[in-house]
């Protein structure tokens, strides 16, 4: 398997499977932060020490005696072997973090074939285990991350304190080192302006609401990441239970907002959805923000049965394909902003036409 395998398709294999509540909740993710006891943390590491961290993880992975099945066909990719465009594509697919892409020359990532598992090396911490599942499956993501963590701990010595727990570069990750999150699509709450009241209430119970690529990013296409903020003083199960309880309430609020829009403003909602579909089908130039907004509208229309002949998966695919990195990788060349906007409109028109042809055949 080569790097090209991870660059060819906009959505990962795991995303093609429909998960629980997947009309509102796109994905569940659990990320576990760990550091090696015999090396300085990445921010203080020399180049040789950073290389040693990669070597130790690679050595564990190549020990096939107890290797987990999900990692048998995995690929180890070093950041120094990628150009900026390739790294950007991996960020857009949520396979690596922006920090690993931008700041870690000596970083690497071990990716499973279906892209549901990503083990980042030399990001903020020596090891960041990430597991992704479709829909509301935080428990399942944690179970897999825990298996991988236990497997690695057989081969590696972690930094651990009897009182504080697992030691990490950022104090908010000290303790369990677990960050559980979900990616939710909340267009109805945004349209009805209820998010302005909901987000502050969520932060009061120890959760963070961020944009599509996490901390410091924008909530494009009404997509939000909701995650725990602190890991110290709580067990893994408490963190997951708290997140799932709040997320189920968010899903209920979004469903109620959708029902309310259909009851009170059905014509206006359908007009909005169909207008967005018309723009996507006929526009000759469109920037990434407008594309995400229109794709969000159409995805909502598909979920509510207002648009037929196009699957929700195509919208998910286009939300990745229309991002700047993937768009240029798909085009096979670097593009300036205007060229990207033109190419983006062409790609969307062609993909929607292809879907309609497939459905009518």
Summarize the entry for a quick read:
The protein is of the alpha+beta class. It is built from 13 helices and 10 strands. Helix 3 crosses helix 12, helix 9 packs across helix 10 and helix 10 packs antiparallel against helix 11.
Question: How do the helices and strands line up, and which of them pair or pack?
Answer:
Elements lengths: L2 H5 L17 E10 L12 H16 L12 E4 L5 H9 L5 H6 L4 E4 L5 E5 L5 E8 L3 H18 L4 E2 L3 E2 L11 E8 L1 H5 L3 H9 L3 E4 L12 E6 L7 H29 L1 H17 L5 H16 L8 H10 L2 H8 L5 H24 L1
Antiparallel strand pairs: 1-5, 1-8, 2-3, 3-4, 4-5, 6-7, 8-10, 9-10
Helix pairs in contact: 3-12, 9-10, 10-11
Indicate the proportion of strand residues. 5-15%
For the sheet with most strands, the description reads: 8 strands, antiparallel
Radius of gyration: 21 Å
Q: Please, how many domains? A: 2
Number of helices: 13
How do the helices and strands follow one another from N- to C-terminus?
Answer: HEHEHHEEEHEEEHHEEHHHHHH
First-to-last CA distance: 34 Å
**What is the CATH class of the largest domain?**
Alpha Beta
Enzyme class: transferase
EC number: 2.7.14.1
Family: Belongs to the ATP:guanido phosphotransferase family.
GO molecular function: ATP binding; creatine kinase activity; protein arginine kinase activity
């Amino acid at each position: 398997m080569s790097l090209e395998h991870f660059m060819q398709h906009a959505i990962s294999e795991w995303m093609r499977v429909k998960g629980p509540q997947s009309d509102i909740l796109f994905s569940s993710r659990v990320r576990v932060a760990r550091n090696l006891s015999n090396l300085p943390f990445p921010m203080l590491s020399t180049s040789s020490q950073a290389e040693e961290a990669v070597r130790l993880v690679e050595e564990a992975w190549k020990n096939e005696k107890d290797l987990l099945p999900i990692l048998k066909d995995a690929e180890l990719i070093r950041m120094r072997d990628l150009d900026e465009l390739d790294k950007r594509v991996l960020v857009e697919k949520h396979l690596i973090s922006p920090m690993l892409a931008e700041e870690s020359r000596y970083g690497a990532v071990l990716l499973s074939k279906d892209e549901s598992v990503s083990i980042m090396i030399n990001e903020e911490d020596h090891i960041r285990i990430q597991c992704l599942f479709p829909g509301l499956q935080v428990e399942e993501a944690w179970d897999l991350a825990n298996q991988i963590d236990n497997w690695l701990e057989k081969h590696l010595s972690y930094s651990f304190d009897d009182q504080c727990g697992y030691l990490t570069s950022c104090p908010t990750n000290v303790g369990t080192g677990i960050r559980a999150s979900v990616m939710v699509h909340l267009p109805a709450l945004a349209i009805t302006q209820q998010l302005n009241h909901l987000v502050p209430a969520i932060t009061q119970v120890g959760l963070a609401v961020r944009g599509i690529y996490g901390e410091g990013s924008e909530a494009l296409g009404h997509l939000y990441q909701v995650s725990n903020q602190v890991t110290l003083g709580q067990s893994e199960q408490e963190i997951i239970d708290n997140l799932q309880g709040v997320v189920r309430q968010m899903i209920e609020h979004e469903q109620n907002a959708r029902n309310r829009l259909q009851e009170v403003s059905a014509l206006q909602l359908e007009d909005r959805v169909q207008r967005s579909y018309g723009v996507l089908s006929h526009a000759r130039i469109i920037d990434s923000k407008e594309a995400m907004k229109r794709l969000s509208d159409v995805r909502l229309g598909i979920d509510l049965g207002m648009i037929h002949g196009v699957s929700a998966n195509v919208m998910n695919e286009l939300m990745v394909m229309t991002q700047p990195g993937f768009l240029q990788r798909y085009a096979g060349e670097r593009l300036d902003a205007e060229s990207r906007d033109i190419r983006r409109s062409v790609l969307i028109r062609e993909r929607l036409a292809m879907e309609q042809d497939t459905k009518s055949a």
